[in-house]
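step 3/5: co-fold with adenosine-5'-triphosphate
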Amino acid sequence: MTAARPAGGDPLLELRNISKHFGSVIALKDISTTVRAGQVTCVLGDNGAGKSTLIKILSGVFAPDAGELLFDGAPAHFGSPRKALDAGIATVYQDLAMVPLMAVWRNFFLGSEPTKGWGPLRVFDRATARRVTRAELAGMGIDIRDTDQPVGTLSGGERQSVAIARAVHFGARLLILDEPTSALGVKQAGVVLRYIVQARERGLGVIFITHNPQHAYPVGDRFLILKRGRSLGDFAKSEISRDEMTQLMAGGTELEELGHELDRVAGDDPAMGAVAEQITAEAVAKGPDGPAVDGPAAPG
Ligand SMILES: Nc1ncnc2c1ncn2[C@@H]1O[C@H](COP(=O)(O)OP(=O)(O)OP(=O)(O)O)[C@@H](O)[C@H]1O
Ligand SMILES: [Mg+2]
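step 4/5: write tokens
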């Protein structure tokens, strides 16, 4: 496939103050970050942080309410997932659009089947499909012995890997992975992380969505941390350590708020009061949030 491009350079994708709301719910507010070719930008955040909303904007499912997307330096308006895909943005969703009972090679070409012959004689070229699938998987260092086996018999990590190899083969320039490791055990997660690195080394820009800093930090070049639709910061790797990031995500401030809230709700109930007190104490022990307040790229 394509030769690896040097990392860095101009951003492949730039998000400038992206906002999106659903009715009165602010799903995203003023989100900015960049993704470069040959680099991995991680998007971290807990449930409801806005991660899926963000990738739906990038993959053409939603239009942002405000803000700007620049792809290759030019303003981009992907009106549909097809348009985003045509521009080279491939999204691998957690539930993976694959057919479990179909062979690996069939799934690899699902929707883009190679054909041979002409007109009514046109047929799906199975030999080519098998050969290309095997070559592409091997090229990514993916060891699936038999591409005739149904996708349903692969492990979760292997399935994610096939999806990544497929995106690379069909010319993706930006690969978006929505929580590819969240349902996996440590070993399988490690396998997927390895393919993320492979994709990066092939020169793709990668957006890796996860709620796990332990998965993000080793492979990430940039980290956007979301909380309830807001950015807690957009950091280059040199600007934040793994510990700072973990602390930022599990920061004490939220616990403290929860403690106060419970306190208010508790009223005269001694049991609730005790719980509130305990949570507040825990929050104090944890200390305040990490570098969110004065982090280098934290929003002003
Ligand atoms: N189509 C929608 N209509 C209304 N509200 C929505 C819609 N999609 C998302 N939301 C709301 O926007 C917020 C962000 O949701 P989103 O799915 O982006 O979070 P997430 O970070 O992907 O969470 P999770 O880790 O649980 O997948 C949530 O409050 C959610 O309820
Ligand atoms: Mg989500």
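step 5/5: annotate
Residues 51-52 surround magnesium ion (ligand 2) (CB under 6 Å).
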